[in-house]
Amino acid sequence: MAKKIVITNEIRKFRFFANEMTQQQLAEKVGVSRQTIISIEAGKYSPSLELAFRIAVAFEVKINEIFDIEVKGD
Predict the structure, then answer these.
(1) Residue-wise DSSP of 3-41
(2) For 35-66, how does the pLDDT look when each residue is reduced to its tens digit (9 = 90+)?
């Protein structure tokens, strides 16, 4: 059976500590829709590598401070 990779994120926390940045403000900063940010935050959508880096750059942190992976299965 194939292993499953689950990507988690801390976007909500980083938005809070960035003067309570809204999802819309982040979306505009990284060039996507608010709905995309909502889906990523909720774990319903995994961003492309480029978008993940753009989000990290928006918060001026390394990508692994925002995103983490968990490998499940044998």
Answers:
(1) -EEEEEE-HHHHHHHTTS--HHHHHHHHTS-HHHHHHHH
(2) 999 999 999 999 999 999 999 999 999 999 99
